[in-house]
């Protein structure tokens, strides 16, 4: 698990003078499931294309097993890719699609048949050998694309938003499936997505990117619990981000009140960003809380309610299982471990204020519900 | 479903200008030029024209293949350039079609004849005069020149539409440049090849003017014979019979080609 396989050293990339990657440094371990996560245009796909060899970085080195591979063309790299929207060959059937790489490698037909069959079993698509690729559903094409890449036994599999075209249910199934395949094959997966939940579910390591720069690298728990700046805190999950001042180690002041917390190492009276996750807030009667506010909106979300609470003009998002009517005056309590302190960054003040909250905040990418009935037949 | 009436005008057009004339051709082919009575004499005399039919098909096939060999790289190169350059280059390919077909053919004759520009230049170098016109080669040259755009158009359209990620995918799976072409680009451009060959072959096989101007006495094509039946021999019945047989032969050729190139029947109907 711990052996380093790929290293990106000081990688920068510019198209026609426009910088898309700025000084990326990253190493990827053998057998790791690493996710490049960020909004569109953050440079995650370009990073993947650089590893795949489709794009040459303007500066920096790509090292594979310690060897610089900048000038090695894609067809000579021990890396295979699952492309966005699959890019299956329309003139070949399922079998020939999967056998494509093996035929190029000039393997015997017996060996090819054995490995294709084995791979079809891994992705659960046995019996589809002679089907045309355009007769398959999105989820099935997805599996064939994965099989076509994995059958070559690459050291690294690159996946470029492979689940983006699937509907929500199928996507959740495929997340579990991909993780299983990765563990079964024991190879490195580098996965690109803009979906934070997908990243949290599958990854060993998440690399959060924005505007061509790496914002944070860490395990899903690290990224969620200890975001480094307001961008990460806002992009991964929901966050209320407040201006605060560190009065001492483990003591922060905001809303004119001092709260004990668990963070230390800041200068005395340093201005900081304070992150409070909406699910960490405890609601108490108005007179028993640290802070007291008025509920201005309630949205039922299934498992919980999203309520917006106005604290002296600054609105918080709080997630609670107890219904609170609009207009109710409630108090909240914050435990020290519910408060996370971040250094100020260029993102400070840009995120984490729910004053313009609307119920559509969460998943914009879930418009694919129309395709659901078509996919149901092949649920696991 | 109710929108079907929109195809009404076209159906009327087809009826008036395709089906009825076709019926007239069939009628003429099976009637006597003098008495107007039913006869199979016109059809029975086809045997005498067999060599001309075969030569026409042969010259058309050769022209179509030369067009393919010349046109494919051009179409491929155009499809690789930036969109704006593509439009410009595509226009260049189309440009000769804006000039009269007759003029272009006559221009070739004056270029290539014994006292033409090419031979005069060669003469300055002490070569020739070479016999560059009035032979089968000149006919093929004329047809390739005139019909090349019809090959490039469908090829360009098909190649341009090939998803560039399929090329990436092939490289990713181990293909070098040549293998990408042979295993992905070429198979995916088959529909364009089929329609390109059809679009060159069909007009080439029935062409008449090019062979008259650029061909020798032995390179008469079936189109010339048909023309002469109507214009000089005044035997439209024999001309109709020849046209009918030519049409059937063309249909057979196209069907054979579609059969060998697989399932893309839809692409190459005339």
According to DSSP, the number of beta strands of chain B is 0
The helix-and-strand class of chain A reads alpha+beta
Strand order within the widest sheet of chain A?
A: 6-7-8-3-9-10
- Helices and strands of chain A, in N-to-C order? EEEHEEEHHHEHEHEEHHEEEEEEEEEEH
**Strand portion of chain B:** under 5%
Query: Which CATH class of the largest domain in chain A applies here?
Result: Alpha Beta
Please provide the count of β strands of chain A: 20
Report low-confidence residues of chain A grouped into runs of 5 or more: 359-380
What proportion of the residues of chain A is helical, as a percent range? 10-25%
Distance between the termini of chain A: 29 Å
Number of helices, where a helix is a run of at least 4 consecutive DSSP H or I residues of chain A: 9
CATH fold-level topology of the largest domain in chain A: Rossmann fold
CATH class bucket of chain B: Mainly Alpha
Q: Give the tally of structural domains of chain B.
A: 1
Provide the gyration radius of chain A in Å: 24 Å
Describe the structure.
The complex is a heterodimer of chains A (380) and B (270). The radius of gyration of chain A is 24 Å and the shape is elongated. In chain A, helix 2 packs parallel to helix 4 (138-150). Chain A has 380 residues and is of the alpha+beta class. Chain A is 23% helix and 33% strand. Chain B starts with 7 loop residues before the first helix and ends in a 10-residue tail after the last helix. Chain B is globular. Helix content of chain B is 71%, strand content 0%. Chain B is mainly alpha-helical and 270 residues long. The model of chain B is unreliable at 264-270 (pLDDT under 50). At the A-B interface, strand 6 and helix 2 of A face helix 8 and helix 9 of B.
């Amino acid at each position: 698990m711990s052996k380093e396989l790929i290293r990106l050293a000081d990688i920068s990339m510019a198209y026609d003078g426009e910088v898309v990657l700025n000084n990326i440094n990253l190493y990827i371990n053998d057998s790791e499931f690493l996710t490049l996560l960020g909004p569109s245009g953050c440079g995650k796909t370009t990073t993947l294309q650089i590893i795949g060899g489709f794009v040459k970085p303007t500066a920096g080195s790509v090292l594979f097993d310690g060897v610089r591979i900048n000038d090695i063309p894609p067809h000579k790299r021990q890396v295979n890719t699952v492309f966005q929207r699959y890019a299956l060959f329309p003139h070949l059937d399922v079998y020939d699609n999967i056998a494509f790489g093996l035929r190029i490698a000039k393997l015997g037909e017996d060996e090819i048949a054995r490995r294709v069959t084995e791979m079809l079993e891994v992705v659960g698509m046995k019996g589809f050998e002679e089907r045309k690729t355009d007769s398959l559903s999105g989820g099935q094409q997805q599996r064939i694309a994965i099989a076509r890449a994995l059958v070559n036994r690459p050291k690294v599999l690159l996946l470029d938003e492979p689940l983006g075209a699937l509907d929500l249910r199928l996507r959740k199934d495929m997340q579990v499936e991909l993780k299983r395949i990765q563990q079964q094959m024991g190879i490195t997966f580098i996965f690109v997505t803009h979906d934070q939940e997908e990243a949290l579910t599958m990854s060993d390591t998440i690399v959060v990117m924005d505007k061509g720069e790496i914002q944070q690298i860490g395990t899903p728990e690290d990224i969620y619990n200890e975001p480094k700046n307001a961008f990460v805190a806002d992009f991964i999950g929901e966050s209320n981000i407040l201006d605060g001042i560190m009065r001492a180690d483990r003591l922060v002041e905001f809303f004119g009140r001092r709260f004990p917390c668990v963070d230390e190492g800041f200068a005395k009276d340093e201005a900081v960003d304070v992150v409070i996750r909406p699910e960490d807030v405890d609601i108490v009667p108005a007179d028993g809380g640290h802070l007291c506010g008025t509920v201005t909106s309630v949205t039922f979300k299934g498992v919980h309610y999203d309520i917006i609470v106005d604290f002296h003009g600054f609105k918080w998002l709080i997630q609670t299982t107890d219904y609170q009517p609009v207009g109710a005056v409630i108090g909240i309590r914050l435990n020290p471990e519910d408060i996370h302190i971040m250094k100020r960054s260029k993102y400070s003040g840009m995120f984490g204020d729910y004053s313009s909250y609307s119920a559509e905040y969460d998943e914009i990418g879930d418009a694919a519900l129309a395709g659901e009935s078509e996919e149901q037949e092949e649920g696991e | 479903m109710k929108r079907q009436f929109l195809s009404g005008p076209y159906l009327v057009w087809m009826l008036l200008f395709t089906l009825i004339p076709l019926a007239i051709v069939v009628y003429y082919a099976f009637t006597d030029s003098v008495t107007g009575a039913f006869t199979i004499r016109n059809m029975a005399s086809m045997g005498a024209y067999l060599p001309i039919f075969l030569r026409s098909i042969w010259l058309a096939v050769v022209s179509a293949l030369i067009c393919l060999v010349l046109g494919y790289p051009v179409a491929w190169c155009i499809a690789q350039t930036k969109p704006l350059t593509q439009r410009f280059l595509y226009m260049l390919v189309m440009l000769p079609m804006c000039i009269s077909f007759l003029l272009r053919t006559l221009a070739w004759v004056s270029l290539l004849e014994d006292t033409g520009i090419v031979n005069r230049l060669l003469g300055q170098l002490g070569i020739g005069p070479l016999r560059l016109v009035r032979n089968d080669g000149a006919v093929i040259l004329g047809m390739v020149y005139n019909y090349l755009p019809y090959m490039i158009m469908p090829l360009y359209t098909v190649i341009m539409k090939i998803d560039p990620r399929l090329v990436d995918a092939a490289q990713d799976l181990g293909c070098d440049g040549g293998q990408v072409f042979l295993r992905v680009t070429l198979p995916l451009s088959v529909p364009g090849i089929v329609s390109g060959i059809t679009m060159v072959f069909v007009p080439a096989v029935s062409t008449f003017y090019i062979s008259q101007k650029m061909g020798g006495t032995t390179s008469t094509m079936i189109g010339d014979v048909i023309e002469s039946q109507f214009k000089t021999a005044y035997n439209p019945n024999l001309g109709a019979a020849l046209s009918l047989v030519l049409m059937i032969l063309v249909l057979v050729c196209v069907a054979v080609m579609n059969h060998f190139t697989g399932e893309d029947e839809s692409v190459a109907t005339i």
